[in-house]
Amino acid sequence: MNTNLLVYNSLSRTMQKFEPINPPYVGMYVCGPTVYGPAHLGHARPAITFDLIFRYLKYLGYKVRYVRNITDVGHLEQDSDTGDDKIAKKAKLENLEPMEIVQIYTEDYHKNMRLLNVLPPSIEPHASGHIIEQQQLVEKIMDNGYAYESNGSVYFDIKKYAEKYRYGKLSGRNVDDLLEKTRTLDGQDEKRNQCDFALWKKASPTHLMHWPSRWSEGFPGWHLECTAMGIKYLGETFDIHGGGIDLQFPHHECEIAQAVGALGHDTVKYWLHNNMITINGKKMGKSLGNAMSLEQFFAGDHELLEQPYTPMTVRFFILQAHYRSTLDFSNEALKASEKGLEKLMNAIHALKEIKPGSTSSFSVQELSDKCFDALNQDFNTPVMISHLYDGVKHINLMKDGKETLTEDDLNALRKLYNDLCFDIMGLLDESSSSASSNDNSEVIGNLVDMIQKLRASAKAEKNYALSDKLRDDLKAAGVVIKDTRDGYEWSLA
Asked: Could you tell me if 407 and 478 lie in one domain?
């Protein structure tokens, strides 16, 4: 088993040799989505980042239990302890039950992850399915003196905790600075300190999602779920906890405090964080007009997009930047990734046709060592990809008869590209699937025509809900319908 892997630990801010707690087993927990809207670009980067890590650890021979949660309760607006639950607010707007919202957008997330070829986790727990475990964790923290009840809600006492432990060690925050900010905020006067965070919130009469507890009829705080589910499925100590850098504070900082407050020790050995995504140099946001769903991205259905981009183009683009660096989406950069991916896939196709020679013109082992050395330096995929492009130059020379490899070396090179591109980077050869789609386009077109006739009948009967459902079902199956004055147009997402 490879023992040369170095990872950047956000907790120590240093590169550390990866040494699992109980080899060959590795426990990895990654914060999953809050499912109250369509999957978007912000969901793609952590999913692909930790999918690569999951794939590579398994490739190295580790047995990985990968837990990625679904947040379906407790995540309030603005990531604070006040306001509406994001899912409950969406449910009110759509006149649906909160768990209908959860079901709709969990399915949307899964569909987009499949398109991006993101492997499913070993376990995908829901916060709402672990209320008992979260309440038990609150009780432990209270028993240890690090939480207090106030008007039916329970808050973590950061000042008390800071007397023995360091709050802020992950994000670099100074707890004294946090405690000095004592101005009272509306709705937060029941806290002892402004920076205290909710472990359990008493539900208002209009709050849609609530459960009984010994403190009140209420719901768990957002930070609580990951601590409770991480301990349940990975134990009181496990190897990796990951997520986006925006979760470092307050979410992951609060997770550390909760775990230590309950157990008396840290649970996580390595904290890994992927950096943020920007679009044309600006942070994504509805107010800026640049927020777009993955579905829009794949269909090219957004004013900022000059064309559709395939899921593999998006995946390859994300892997061309180191996971800890900021990643900026632009049409120019994505077009370059599209061409770069095509170049790589063409080389893999050429490798299948190249015949072995009697001698080897270059060292496949040296190329392999460079690629894996890059991966072992904190999963440095951009450096690894640059080495793969160096190999592409040799492949093209072999294709032109200017270089050769022996049969053993040629087979080793084929395996290297297959392992790195498909098994580890998780790329798919979209040229093969495109050919298959073209072969079946007539059949798909006939099926779309049939469904469109059903939609037309539904509209004629003023059953617009059925018409919209048929259109949405087609979209979920990968067929995008655009109604026009003359009828309709369709395309594969």
From this structure: no
